[in-house]
């Protein structure tokens, strides 16, 4: 009798624990952004991100911080984009006269100070890189991997690669679908868990105080009554919850003074689990004198996003084009700062993952070079001036056709060939006044009259729902639903850590419930066996 009673109690307790676990998680399946985008990638990620600063590096992040499905334009007096930047179209820099003549990618003078690893692809473009005369694009310490031509002055290591953006093409459609899914379940708006009210001087978001995923639907601009800046405030948000703000409508503007440099503003505390989603807008503007907090997702491929906010603190993923600029009558120095998104979003299908491995990059005329001339005061790399698809530099202004030219031309390995190149992911440069670095090739046609060193570049490919690419030598492609992927070609580690927390830790409850259920089952079996013997 006692055994039977204990078995019943155990089974009941087990069922209660399992039900409690489901209630706590609100029945939702948590997932990251497509391709595992969002979290910091690599073994050098900081445990806690510091506020915006200009101190020593706090860690390294090989994840994509800015993704642009169209073109990326730098205008007026914008200053820099920290972290890895991927652009499927052209990167075009033409700042206004009188403004600072430089724009940084990869490493920023002021930001989270968690840049990509040395030798990673700081900027990847599927089109051309255009830099206006007398201006400089600085990618010191990293690689500018470009499919088209390079015009103007660019620092860092240049890699011509026709397939530069190929691993990231599928992300555009994945992000478009995800943006729509986050806002709607089919044609029905995703149920909101709270309210958003524009009160003129502020927009107040009020959550339900309990859901692990706080959803808000906003069909108005976050601006003052005359279009000026306003505050942004959240209340009723439980600790660890993810905040999803769906900014619906054909055109949306956020103009705010909320968010600071020192992480003292309450909104800063929500940064790494806050996503601003624009599923429909063909025009998006984010402005204001604040350090804007949270990550941004724009799902309309034909859209143009204009960013004039002083600082963007979070990931920025748009399927359309991006204009990083400043207001015509305002100050300059607009910056993208690299901060992760660690929130848990609704499950919207499987996410492709890519495991990079060392292989020779696929290109028809890959060349890269560096020199010690015209170095930026804050850089340790050199300035490279180009006007064509190959990169030619010289410390003594040597003509590319002269006997002392540092130009290197090589035929890189085709995607289907095999190569015994080194697995090094770090570019090698010489401290001498004239040196070059060439892509390792299976063809013995590369030549140079100066000292040279070779290195292999990493160019993995990925498979997504809308595009399929042929993996290069040594590249492993896997598809794992819901698992963050290290979509991070161009050097550096590929691991992105575990799936972000759902905001409610339930594994302990589930383990306890399973144990009690098994114990109850064993006791029931023993009771039945005992009664059979008695009879």
Automatic annotation (TrEMBL):
The chain crosses the membrane at residues 508-528. Residues 62-314 form the Choice-of-anchor A domain. Residues 326-503 are annotated as: Disordered. Residues 1-30 form the signal peptide. Pfam families: pAdhesive_15. Residues 483-494 have a biased composition (Gly residues). Residues 349-482 have a biased composition (Low complexity). Keywords: Membrane, Signal, Transmembrane, Transmembrane helix. This is Choice-of-anchor A domain-containing protein.
